[in-house]
Design brief:
The chain is an all-alpha fold. 38% of the residues lie in helices and 0% in strands. The protein has a domain at 33-58. The chain has two helices and no strands. The model has no long low-confidence stretch (mean pLDDT 79).
Length: 58
């Protein structure tokens, strides 16, 4: 069985998954993910997450 997972992925800690060799690059090469956010967005995000957690506690 094969699964398109990335590393780190939580399944690797739960199961004994192994990376398959892909010498012909059938599944492509290494991928990179880039992200950008506006200045100050992290403060807004964390405030929103805290509010959500407070609502779930009620």
């Amino acid at each position: 069985m094969g699964a398109p997972l990335w590393s780190p992925h939580w399944l690797f800690s739960e199961y004994d998954f192994k990376f398959l060799q892909d010498p012909k690059k059938t599944f492509g090469g290494v991928k990179k993910i880039y992200h950008a956010i506006r200045h100050g967005f992290d403060k807004i995000l964390f405030r929103s997450l805290r509010m959500t957690e407070e609502l779930e506690d009620d």
